[in-house]
Amino acid sequence: MSANAAPISPERFAEALVELPIGNLHSKAAEMRNAIAHLVSSNEQLRQYANNGDQDCADAIKENDEVIERMHIRIGLLKNEVENRGLPWGDDEPVTLNGKVEAVEDAQENSAQNRSQLDSSSQPARATGGTLGDEELARRLRAQMEEDNGGVHL
Predict the structure, then answer these.
(1) More confident position, 4 or 102
(2) Which of the pair, 34 or 96, is modelled with greater confidence?
(3) CA distances (Å), 76 to each of 26, 42, 69, 100, in order?
(4) Three-state DSSP class for 101?
(5) pTM for this entry
(6) Which pLDDT does position 26 carry in this prediction?
(7) Rounded-to-integer distance, Cα 46 and Cα 49, Å
(8) N or C: which end of the chain has fewer CB within 10 A?
(9) Per-residue pLDDT at 103
(10) 77 φ, ψ to 5°?
(11) Rounded to an integer, what distance in angstroms lies between the CA atom of residue 4 and that of residue 124?
(12) Rounded to an integer, what distance in angstroms lies between the CA atom of residue 50 and that of residue 59?
């Protein structure tokens, strides 16, 4: 999405769902859960830097949290549409991230924790652990990319 484009309103999103087949509704929910898991992971990686005073990272976490909230609203709209058609909705559908299963509630809790940590103090908190040097960070990123098997993450 471009910087000037606003996200589609929940009302328009709900209107668009009426015409979609059930399979597409469940697929869209799974796609959103996957995106939420990636945003939560990103926030966890950014938190250390935000807590050390990096305003760009703090802003990115807040923006990610806003997107996560919008996605949860949209998942709720997807659920309503499926149930309005008289079909069951699987609330316990897990979120997967790099092969690990994470409950949707855990993703919501992590998002709420991110916001409270950033909003709780005007002074940046100091990380209790060490920081990574450029070489170590590069090594870890290469290792993570190799583990990803070259897949595309949306």
Answers:
(1) 4
(2) 34
(3) 12, 23, 11, 23
(4) strand
(5) 0.59
(6) 92
(7) 6
(8) C
(9) 46
(10) -65, -40
(11) 30
(12) 8
- Decide if 95 contacts 107 (C-beta within 8 A): yes
Which amino acid is located at 110 in the chain?
A: N
**Token pair belonging to 35:** 């995106």
| Strand locations in the chain (E) | 95-97, 100-102
Q: Is the pLDDT of residue 111 over 80?
A: no
Tens of pLDDT, residue by residue over 21-69, are 999 999 999 999 999 999 999 999 999 999 999 999 999 999 999 999 9
Cβ count within 10 A of residue 43? 25
Name residue, tokens 């070489």: 135
Q: What is the token pair recorded at 20?
A: 């979609």
Q: Are 46 and 60 in contact (CB under 8 A)?
A: yes
